[in-house]
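TASK: fixed-backbone design
INPUT:
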């Protein structure tokens, strides 16, 4: 790679100097950091990073290359990538292209040679902030002004959700997966359990789901503020009374909102692969993979029919919920993560058991409420 200068400029005026790789363009977005040591391909292709410039805290990124099997979506939607060192000669039998080549293909710019430790500490102290990747800082005042004028989008889920339904066939329980920006591994985990999965758009109505007569509803992860998806909240108010529901990440937040809870934007969020979570029901700690910038307010749960089931060890935030009456539950983290801890994978089996119970009730002629 050529030693072409590139700069990361933050909204507070701080400038980080480095070198360009990936696509050759200037971009603006929210600057966040991810602490995982592996899984950079899955991170880059995770739709939950839509509109964001992702800083990798691990010092060497790209060392095992990129391959066609580990993408979480076909077209990554993040804005940019920030690394300390980028590997130009990856070594892995599955490698098909370098990180630099992949980012060029996806038209995503990157910067390397950045003091990512300093950048991460700045974000932790000040909170996530807007920034830009640019190739020149001659007019730095104009760049900072433009960064601060940039508004956070409110249509991120619409950008990444499927536009029409499609099926991933199985012979088991019929699952409707509402796509708010799903990771492909959610589908893989359901297919592993022989589920017949129908992926549907984020704005599907409750009536349309009822007509499909599924055995269960999966609510996917996705980007942005959950309050920007009001149509999904209204749909969930109806659906949770009729079918088993399992929500992940953004799906968890929407489940909470549908039941009268509230959410808030976190200072710098949880983004990494080793976050400890307490399972309140078993009193055991599970390691989890996480990627979210919003959280459910615990105080807001008091007047709802929701019970907190999981709690973050590091900052005491809400990590899991279940409904007192319905076969509906959710978690803030990613039980489908790969690579990542396998501790929470049992949640998919719990969903299967809920669908089994629901189907047996239907066969027995008893209406499930």
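OUTPUT:
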């Amino acid at each position: 790679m050529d030693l072409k200068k590139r700069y990361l400029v933050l909204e507070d005026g701080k400038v980080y100097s480095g070198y360009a790789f990936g696509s050759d363009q200037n971009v603006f977005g929210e600057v966040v950091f991810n602490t995982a040591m592996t899984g950079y391909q899955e991170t880059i292709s995770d739709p939950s990073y839509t509109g964001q410039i992702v800083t990798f805290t691990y010092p060497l990124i790209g060392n095992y290359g990129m391959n066609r099997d580990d993408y979480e979506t076909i077209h990554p939607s993040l804005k940019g990538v920030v690394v300390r060192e980028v590997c130009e000669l990856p070594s892995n039998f599955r490698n098909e292209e370098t990180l630099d080549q992949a980012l060029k293909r996806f038209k995503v710019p990157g910067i390397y040679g950045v003091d990512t430790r300093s950048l991460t500490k700045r974000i932790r102290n000040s909170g996530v902030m807007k920034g830009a990747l640019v190739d020149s800082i001659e007019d730095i005042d104009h760049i900072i002004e433009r960064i601060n004028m940039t508004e956070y989008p409110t249509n991120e889920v619409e950008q990444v959700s499927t536009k029409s339904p499609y099926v991933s066939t199985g012979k088991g329980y019929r699952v409707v997966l509402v796509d708010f920006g799903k990771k492909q591994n959610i589908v893989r985990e359901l297919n592993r359990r022989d589920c017949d999965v129908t992926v549907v758009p984020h704005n599907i109505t409750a009536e349309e789901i009822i007509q499909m007569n599924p055995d269960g509803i999966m609510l996917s992860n996705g980007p942005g503020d959950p309050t920007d998806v009001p149509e999904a909240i209204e749909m969930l108010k109806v659906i949770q009374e009729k079918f088993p529901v399992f929500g992940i990440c953004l799906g968890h937040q929407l489940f909470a909102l549908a039941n009268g809870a509230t959410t808030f934007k976190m200072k710098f969020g949880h983004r990494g692969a080793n976050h400890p979570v307490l399972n309140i029901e078993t009193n055991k700690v599970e390691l989890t993979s996480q990627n979210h910038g919003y959280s459910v307010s615990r105080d807001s749960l008091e007047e709802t029919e929701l019970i907190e089931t999981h709690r973050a060890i590091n900052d005491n935030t809400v990590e899991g919920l279940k409904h007192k009456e319905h076969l509906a539950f959710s978690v803030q983290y990613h039980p489908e993560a790969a690579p990542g801890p396998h501790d929470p994978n049992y949640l998919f089996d719990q969903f299967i058991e809920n669908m089994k119970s629901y189907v047996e009730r239907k066969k027995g002629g008893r209406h499930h409420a």
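COMMENT: The chain has a mean pLDDT of 96.
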